[in-house]
Specification:
Blueprint lengths: L11 H4 L5 H8 L15 H10 L6 E5 L4 E4 L4 H4 L11 H4 L4 H12 L5 E11 L4 E14 L5 E10 L1 H17 L9 H15 L7 E6 H4 L10 E7 L11 E2 L7 E4 L15 E7 L9 E6 L8 H67 L8 H31 L8 E3 L1 H10 L2 H7 L1 E7 L6 E3 L1 H17 L4 E10 L2 E8 L6 H4 L20 H11 L3 E6 L5 E8 L45 E6 L3 H13 L2 E6 L2 H10 L4 E5 L7 H10 L8 E5 L4 H9 L4 E4 L10 H12 L7
Parallel strand pairs: 13-15, 19-20, 19-21, 21-22, 22-23
Antiparallel strand pairs: 1-2, 1-5, 3-4, 4-5, 6-7, 6-11, 7-8, 9-10, 10-11, 12-14, 15-16, 16-18, 17-18
Helix pairs in contact: 7-10, 8-10, 10-11, 11-16, 12-14, 14-16
Enzyme class: transferase
Catalytic activity: ATP + protein L-histidine = ADP + protein N-phospho-L-histidine
Keywords: Kinase, Phosphoprotein, Transferase, Two-component regulatory system
Length: about 750
């Protein structure tokens, strides 16, 4: 390797002259004992390469000769770690034995005359600090030729990119933690914790094992023993039979600390033994003590340096935030569930109140209606007036009961429309006509402008009628003089109902609140509980529409309801009732019209009287129903409870059973279920009778095999009167098969 023209003029002191520890050590090496031989014999090309490497601030290495003997600069000593200074003059394969399978072939490729190589972000596990260290490098191997043009060495320029690669990888882990959702599922807290350990488990190089322990009371545990135990809720990176995962660990110390286990190890699946973990306390706002601990395994291939510690702290902060969010979500979910239960309880309460109110109302309205129907001089005028007043008051009370029930359904999301073919124009006009007398008495002009092309349509009749009645009643109530105008038209596929009055108007500060629950505008001086307009908004929304208000003090108000117009199918005739407002609530402040005549009782001598079993616990109502049914030609066997009824059926089978739903002991549904379970009574006609309003109750009864389900009410304009039930019983079952 002697270079021509240099001879002995190039000594080690001259070639390696200059400051720095590495140059000093290069000068003291006995190069004659290395494959390169004495410095004086080195070629011009070798010396030139050395003069390029040594001054550079970038880590540079020169491999020379077949053995790839190493010469490097000061900057490269950081790459070597504990391999320095022994690496000076050492063959590459000997110095880098742990990675030679990766880098050796690249060097041999260049030495054999191949092209230069460039490698980015190459993972290399270096044994330079007493352990196998995970590192990443970007480097190039360039050939250095001798005077004959042959490759004599390899010039290596390298950059340590470990911090960049680890930083990006850890940042991605933090990003993935940020995508963990705390919403949904039966147990959001546990689900979130398990999602966290799945994310951490996917980052096995930084977190070879992970586990989350929560205090038992936070995790939803129960029991009195060891109440401060931490319960495992999720783990990753540990074999199923590993001893690392006890069901519980004592919560005596959840401060961040290092745990080493000389002689034993935690074995993450597919990795080198983990001998170090960190216990990181999970701090959550609102809790005086940590709610749990995050166990993070430390990679055996990385030192727990400041960057690693910062990553662990960020992971802990993320997990703490997720747990805080999950606890907050659970709190809000439980709060929402509690509110929903309150709403459900309120609905049940209103339904029960409806039942309790309807029974005495039944006993009030039935006799009152009978008295009102008397004509001539059968009753003195003052008594007729008193009866009329009592009847109106009772009807008004029933309206309030029905409104409260509608309100409870609306708040519980149970206000479901039941559309049917309806001549909506005629129905609207007849609703308005109910106020003719009231308008005349108030000195108001009541007008109705109905677009004949508006119907027939598919609409919930009861909801539509309640909308019209509430709006017109409200207009009449708050209009001292002038007029109330009702218009119905179709516009762009929608039904548009507007009610305009020349009343007192509504101030701007109150307009936004008129549809609120229980809010009353005081300007008119009229009574009410403030739910009529609220229900109008609810009914309009249930029909897929909306209600708007245009008003100002002194110029009256216009309420406009817009709902989708769904044409009735061709060939379907809209239902026509004897009273077009048939099954809706009367308004107490509307002048009550004379009811239609009762159905004549079928009590002719010799008539084929049928037997009916009546089951009703209320004695007054039982007696009243008995009288009505007897007037219709039935032999009535009346009992107060289901057990007595079953005994009567066992002795003598009736033609028909008419039973209340709410009975002491066994209720009507259970009684019906018992009848249907016996072959002898499986086909016995059963009609359930109740004062409890609600579609759910009807569906429940029919699902259990009732032939019919009747809502008992004496309201002139609401549901089916008991006397009409009696008439329907006769009509539906007189022709039935004799079951004697």
């Amino acid at each position: 390797m002697t270079g021509s023209g240099f001879g002995n003029s190039w000594s080690a002191d001259r070639l390696f002259a200059g400051p720095g520890e590495t140059r000093e050590r290069l000068r003291r090496i006995d190069w004659a004992a290395t494959p390169l031989g004495p410095v004086e014999t080195w070629s011009v090309e070798l010396r030139a390469a050395i003069r390029t490497v040594l001054p550079s601030e970038v880590p540079m290495l020169l491999w020379w000769g077949p053995e790839l003997v190493q010469i490097f600069n000061d900057a490269y000593t950081r790459v070597l770690g504990a391999k320095y200074p022994a690496a000076i003059g050492e063959p590459g394969a000997q110095c880098w034995a742990e990675i030679w399978d990766e880098v050796g072939p690249l060097a041999e490729q260049v030495m054999s005359g191949g092209a230069a190589t460039y490698t980015e972000n190459q993972p290399l596990y270096l044994l330079r600090h007493g352990y196998l260290e995970e590192t990443y490098w970007t480097f190039s191997y360039s050939p250095v030729q001798d005077e004959d043009g042959k490759v004599a060495g390899v010039f290596v320029a390298t950059t340590d990119v470990t911090a960049t690669v680890l930083g990006e990888r850890r940042l991605e882990t933090l990003r993935q933690l940020g995508t963990v959702s705390t919403a949904g599922g039966d147990d959001p807290l546990v689900d979130a914790c398990r999602a966290v350990v799945r994310v951490l488990g996917a980052s096995g190089q930084d977190v070879p094992l992970a586990a989350i322990y929560l205090r038992r009371e936070v995790a939803g545990g129960s029991g009195d023993d060891a109440a401060d135990d931490l319960v495992l809720v999720g783990a990753a990176g540990v074999d199923d039979d590993g001893e690392f995962r006890p069901a519980r660990i004592p919560a005596t110390d959840v401060t961040s600390r290092r745990v080493q286990a000389p002689g034993e190890s935690f074995e993450p699946a597919g990795s080198k033994a983990v001998t170090e973990v960190r216990l990181c306390p999970l701090i959550v706002t609102g809790h005086a003590e940590p709610v749990g601990v995050l166990v993070l395994g430390i990679s055996p291939y990385r030192a727990f340096d400041d960057a690693y510690r910062g990553f662990a702290e960020l992971v802990t902060a993320k997990v703490s935030t997720l747990i805080s969010d999950a606890l907050a979500y659970e709190f809000e979910r439980d709060r929402a569930a509690a509110l929903a239960e309150l709403d459900a309880a309120k609905t049940r309460f209103f339904q029960n109140v409806s039942h309790e109110f309807r029974t005495p109302l039944t006993l009030l309205l039935g006799p009152l209606e009978t008295l009102r129907e008397r004509t001539g001089d059968e009753l003195p005028a003052d008594q007729r007036d008193a009866i009329a007043a009592a009847y109106r008051a009772a009807v008004r009370l029933q309206q309030l009961v029905d409104d409260l029930l509608d309100l409870s359904k609306a708040e519980a999301g149970q206000l479901l429309p039941r559309p049917e073919p309806t001549d909506v124009g005629r129905l609207t006009a007849e609703c308005v006509s109910m106020f003719d007398s009231a308008a005349v008495q108030a000195g108001l002009a009541l007008r109705a402008d109905i677009d004949e092309g508006a119907g027939p349509v598919e609409v919930d009749r009861e909801m539509w009628v309640k909308i019209v009645l509430n709006l017109v009643s409200n207009a009449v109530k708050y209009t001292r003089s002038g007029s109330v105008s009702v218009a119905l038209r179709q516009d762009a596929g929608r039904l548009v109902l507007s009610v305009t009055d020349t009343g007192v108007g509504i101030p701007a500060e109150e307009r936004e609140r008129v549809f609120d629950r229980f809010y009353r505008v005081e300007a008119g001086g009229s009574g009410g509980v403030g739910i009529g307009l609220s229900l109008v908004a609810d009914f309009a929304a249930a029909l897929g529409g909306s209600v708007e208000l245009d008003s100002a003090p002194g110029r009256g108000s216009t309420f406009t309801v817009r709902v989708p117009r769904v044409p009735a199918p061709d060939g379907v005739t809209p239902r026509a009732d004897d009273r077009p407002v048939g099954a809706v609530t009367s308004f107490g402040d509307i002048d009550q019209r004379e009811p239609s005549a009762e159905v004549a009782p079928s009590t002719e001598p010799g008539a084929d009287r049928r037997r009916i079993l009546l089951v009703e616990d209320h004695p007054d109502l039982r007696a009243y129903l008995t009288r009505l049914l007897q007037e219709q030609g039935w032999d009535v066997d009346a009992v107060a409870d289901a057990e007595s009824a079953l005994k009567r059926v066992a002795v003598r089978t009736p033609h028909l059973v008419l039973s209340d739903v709410m009975l002491p002991g066994r209720d009507g549904i259970d009684f019906l279920r018992e009848l249907r379970s016996e072959q002898s009574t499986a086909r016995l006609p059963v009609v359930l009778l109740t004062a409890r309003a609600g579609t759910e109750s009807t569906i429940d009864g029919l699902n259990h095999g009732a032939d019919d389900y009747k809502l008992a009410s004496y309201s002139q304009n609401r549901n089916v009167k008991l006397r009409e039930i009696a008439a329907e019983v006769v009509a539906n079952f007189t022709a039935g098969t004799d079951r004697e």
